[in-house]
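Exercise 7b. C-alpha cells:
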C-alpha cells in the first residue's frame, strides 16, 4: 500500500510497512478476512468452504504454499482423501468458532437499535404514532431424503418481522427482526421468541397454528393493560375455508359456486364489507342447498370467525397492513430455506445455530452491504476490550448431546424465564 493511503478499516493513514490488523490477541487471521467470512456465512456459504477460503487467503498473504493434492499425482489416493477430510473438519471448526465469537459483536448493537426504534414508535398517543405490526411464521428443517426413506423434522426456524405503518400517508416499512431455531414450533418456542422481542405490538399477523395461538394468548394474559389485535393470515384463512368446502362437498354435495372464485382472487378479504358479503352468501348457500346445521363448521364459526370479523375492521383502518405472512414466508425461503435445507442436517448446537441466524438477519437488513463498516465494528470491539475478542467454544454441547434436536429444551427455557 502506498504511503499515506487511508485504510477504511482503521480510519487512519498507515505507512507502507503496515498491514491489516489481526482480529485480536491470539488470532493469526486479520479482521478483514474474518469480516468477509462472516458475510459469506450469512449468505449461506458452507462452514468448511468458508474456512478453507480464509486459510487460502492467509497462505497467499504470508507466501505459504498450501498442499495441493489434486496436483500431486504421486500421492496415495487414500492419504489425499483423508488429508482433505481433516482439512475440511479443521476449516469447519474455524468458521463455527467465528460465528460463535463474533456474531454477538455485530448483532447485539443492531438489535438494541432496532428495539429502540420500536419503543419510540410505540410511545405516545395511539392516534398520533405509527402502527407497529408483528408478523410470525416458521419453516421446518428436515433430514435429507435417502433411499426412499421418509424425511424427519430436525428443528424449526421461527421468524418475526416488523411493519411500521404511517396512519396518515398509509405507507409502511417492513424488516426482518428475529430468526430463532428451536427443536419444534410449539407454544413454548413462540413464547421464547415473543419474550426476546420484549414488547407488545399493536397487531400480530400469524397463521393461526396451535403453537402461535397459545403463545399469543399467553402474551395477552401477561399484558392485560396493553391490548393488541390478532389477525389470521389471509392465505391461511383461505386455506381453512377451502378445507371447509372439501369437507362439505364429499358427503353433502355442497356447491360453492363463485365463492371459490372470490377466494382465488382475494376479493373476499378486500374490506370488512366484502368479507361480510362473502360470508352471508356462504351461509345462504348452505341453507339453500339443505346442508344440515350439524355439518356446518360450527366450531370454526364460534372460535375463529369473530377474530376474522375484528381484523377486517383493522384492515379497513390500516389499508397497507400486510394481510398475509406471505412476504415473511418468501423471506424465509430466500434467507433460510435455501441455506438450511442442505446444511441444516449437520447442525446440532442450538446457540451456535441461532448466532448464525443472527448473521442472516443482519444480512437481510443490509448490514453486510458495507464490509468496511463490518470490519470497523469488529476492530472497534477488540480495541474496547484491550485487544481481546470473545472466547470460543463456550457454548459447546455436553458430550454427544445435540441441543438443537432436544425437544425438552423450549419448555425448560420457558420455565427458567418464568414465562
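Sequence design result:
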Amino acid at each position: 500500500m502506498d504511503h499515506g493511503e487511508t485504510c477504511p478499516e482503521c480510519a487512519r493513514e498507515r505507512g507502507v510497512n503496515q498491514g491489516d490488523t489481526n482480529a485480536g490477541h491470539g488470532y493469526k487471521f486479520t479482521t478483514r478476512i474474518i469480516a468477509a467470512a462472516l458475510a459469506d456465512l450469512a449468505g449461506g456459504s458452507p462452514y468448511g468452504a468458508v474456512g478453507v477460503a480464509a486459510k487460502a487467503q492467509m497462505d497467499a498473504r504470508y507466501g505459504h504454499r498450501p498442499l495441493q493434492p489434486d496436483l500431486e499425482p504421486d500421492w496415495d489416493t487414500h492419504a489425499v482423501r483423508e488429508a482433505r477430510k481433516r482439512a475440511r473438519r479443521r476449516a469447519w471448526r474455524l468458521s463455527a468458532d467465528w460465528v460463535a465469537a463474533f456474531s454477538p459483536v455485530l448483532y447485539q448493537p443492531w438489535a438494541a437499535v432496532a428495539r429502540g426504534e420500536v419503543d419510540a414508535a410505540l410511545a405516545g398517543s395511539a392516534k398520533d404514532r405509527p402502527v407497529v405490526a408483528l408478523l410470525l411464521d416458521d419453516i421446518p428443517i428436515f433430514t435429507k431424503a435417502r433411499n426412499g426413506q421418509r424425511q424427519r423434522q430436525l428443528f424449526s426456524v421461527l421468524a418475526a418481522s416488523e411493519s411500521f405503518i404511517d396512519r396518515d400517508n398509509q405507507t409502511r416499512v417492513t424488516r426482518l427482526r428475529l430468526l430463532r431455531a428451536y427443536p419444534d414450533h410449539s407454544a413454548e418456542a413462540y413464547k421464547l421468541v415473543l419474550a426476546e422481542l420484549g414488547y407488545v405490538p399493536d397487531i400480530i399477523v400469524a397463521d393461526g397454528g396451535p403453537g402461535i395461538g397459545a403463545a399469543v394468548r399467553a402474551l395477552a394474559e401477561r399484558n392485560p393493560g396493553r391490548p393488541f389485535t390478532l389477525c389470521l393470515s389471509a392465505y391461511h384463512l383461505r386455506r381453512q375455508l377451502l378445507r371447509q368446502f372439501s369437507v362439505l362437498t364429499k358427503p353433502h354435495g355442497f356447491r360453492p359456486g363463485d365463492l371459490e372464485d372470490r377466494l382465488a382472487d382475494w376479493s373476499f378479504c378486500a374490506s370488512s364489507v366484502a368479507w361480510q358479503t362473502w360470508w352471508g352468501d356462504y351461509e345462504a348457500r348452505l341453507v339453500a342447498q339443505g346442508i344440515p346445521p350439524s355439518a356446518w363448521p360450527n366450531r370454526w364459526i364460534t372460535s375463529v370467525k369473530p377474530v376474522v370479523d375484528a381484523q377486517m375492521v383493522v384492515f379497513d383502518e390500516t389499508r397497507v397492513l400486510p394481510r398475509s405472512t406471505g412476504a415473511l414466508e418468501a423471506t424465509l425461503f430466500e434467507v433460510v430455506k435455501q441455506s438450511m435445507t442442505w446444511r441444516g442436517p449437520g447442525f446440532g448446537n442450538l446457540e451456535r445455530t441461532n448466532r448464525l441466524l443472527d448473521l442472516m438477519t443482519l444480512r437481510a437488513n443490509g448490514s453486510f452491504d458495507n464490509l468496511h463498516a463490518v470490519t470497523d465494528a469488529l476492530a472497534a470491539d477488540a480495541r474496547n476490550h484491550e485487544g481481546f475478542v470473545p472466547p470460543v467454544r463456550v457454548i459447546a454441547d455436553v458430550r454427544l448431546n445435540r441441543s438443537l434436536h432436544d425437544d425438552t429444551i423450549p419448555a425448560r427455557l420457558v420455565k427458567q424465564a418464568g414465562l
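Instructor comment: The chain is about 50% helix and 10% strand. The CA atoms of residues 93 and 100 lie 10 Å apart.
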